[in-house]
Fold this sequence. Notes:
Radius of gyration: 16 Å
Number of helices: 6
Number of strands: 2
Distance between the termini: 45 Å
Largest sheet: 2 strands, parallel
Helix content: 40-55%
Amino acid sequence: MPFYGFNRPGAKISQGIRDNWWRQAMMGGIKAQYDCVKALSETAFFEDLKSIDVPVLVMHGEDDQICPFQASGAKSVKLVKHGTLKTYPGFPHGMPTTNADQINADLLEFIERKVSVAGA
């Protein structure tokens, strides 16, 4: 499961995460899932990013096998007007699940910092 990096040597595989991934897949219709993958794999959303003018935290795992960093995160942060990039060595695409404590803490810190600056 490259989404979670479970295919990497020494990966700590969570059966709970695997089961939940399967559960999510079984809840959706196959046509909708196919159309989603097709649209995401064939559409470049980079032009849309140029119109975003609020602070944005781009969080990206450096071992993302689904959306490789150089092709997505590195490019995205350059296109938003007020982007901040936070990368995570060894983290997979599914890092909000596999590394929730770290991701949530960094996201909260970003939000708190932006709120305190805006309120100052």
